[in-house]
């Protein structure tokens, strides 16, 4: 079960690659939504308002389920897909890569464009700090105050993420656990008398 994903920690800018008079400038941004992508694109376009092409590709979601590639006026599949190919090669999501082109007067041909956009994207991502993240499942635990120590011990034993806690007469916890460990950890909590466990999968089972 895949329970990790990779993204970049911070933006990369102004990675320059030149080919036959044309100048290609690479950018990479960590993004979490299409709104953030639009803002990043606007930032690049304002910086390079005289450029001819703004080709890009992005991938979103922890399961890598959403992506888009755009040639922005270059021949079909000569720019966006080579850039997207590098997102795949580096196994990245929640990431946008933009390659700005200033045309130098000499046509590169489709093969030349594919190679150049791929190389620019590759060199841009090589400068990025890539970070690894786990995909977590969340569940809630409710108990009386005298059971709090049991819950806290389990959190420590399984290195769980304590997302939220409310400790009054009763105790409420929202916990996160790595996806591949979820069933085992949930069963461990369920075995303890006095702990009420809440997760959508339990409701489905009735």
Question: What does the secondary structure layout of this molecule look like, with pairings?
Answer:
Layout: E1 4-8, E2 12-19, E3 22-30, H1 34-47, E4 53-60, E5 66-70, H2 80-89, E6 95-102, H3 109-126, E7 130-134, E8 136-144, H4 148-157, E9 161-167, E10 170-178, H5 182-190, E11 196-198, H6 200-204
Antiparallel strand pairs: 1-7, 2-3, 3-6, 4-5, 4-6, 8-10, 8-11, 9-10
Protein name: Impact N-terminal domain-containing protein
InterPro entries: Impact (IPR023582), Impact_N (IPR001498), Impact_N_sf (IPR036956), Ribosomal_Su5_D2-typ_SF (IPR020568)
Organism: Psychroflexus planctonicus
Task: Outline the structure in words.
The protein has 206 residues and is an alpha+beta fold. It folds into two domains: 4-132, Impact, N-terminal domain (Ribosomal Protein S5, domain 2, 2-Layer Sandwich), CATH 3.30.230; 135-204, ACT domain (Alpha-Beta Plaits), CATH 3.30.70. The chain contains six helices and eleven strands. The chain has helices spanning 34-47, 80-89, 109-126, 148-157, 182-190, 200-204, and strands at residues 4-8, 12-19, 22-30, 53-60, 66-70, 95-102, 130-134, 136-144, 161-167, 170-178, 196-198. The strands form three sheets. The chain has a five-stranded antiparallel sheet, sandwiched between helices. Strands 9-10-8-11 form a four-stranded antiparallel sheet. A hairpin with a 2-residue loop joins strand 2 and strand 3. The longest helix has 18 residues, at 109-126. The protein is elongated and about 75 Å long. It starts with a strand and ends with a helix. The mean pLDDT is 93.
């Amino acid at each position: 079960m895949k329970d990790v994903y990779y993204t970049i920690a911070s933006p990369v800018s102004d990675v320059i690659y030149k080919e036959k008079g044309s100048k290609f400038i690479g950018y990479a941004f960590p993004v979490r939504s299409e709104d953030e992508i639009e803002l990043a694109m606007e930032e690049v376009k304002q910086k390079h308002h005289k450029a001819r092409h703004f080709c890009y590709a992005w991938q979103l979601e922890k399961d890598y389920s959403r992506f888009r590639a755009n040639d922005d006026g270059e021949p079909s599949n000569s720019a966006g897909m080579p850039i997207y190919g590098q997102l795949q090669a580096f196994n990245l999501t929640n990431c946008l890569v933009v390659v700005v082109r200033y045309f130098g007067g000499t046509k590169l041909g489709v093969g030349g464009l594919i190679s150049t956009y791929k190389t620019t994207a590759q060199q841009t991502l090589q400068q990025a700090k890539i970070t690894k993240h786990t995909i977590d499942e969340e569940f809630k635990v409710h108990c009386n105050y005298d059971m709090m120590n049991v819950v806290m011990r389990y959190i420590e034993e399984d290195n769980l993420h304590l997302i939220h806690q409310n400790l009054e007469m009763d105790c409420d916890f929202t916990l996160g656990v790595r996806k591949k460990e979820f069933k085992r950890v949930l069963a461990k909590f369920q075995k303890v008398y006095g702990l009420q466990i809440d997760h959508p999968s339990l409701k489905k089972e009735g």
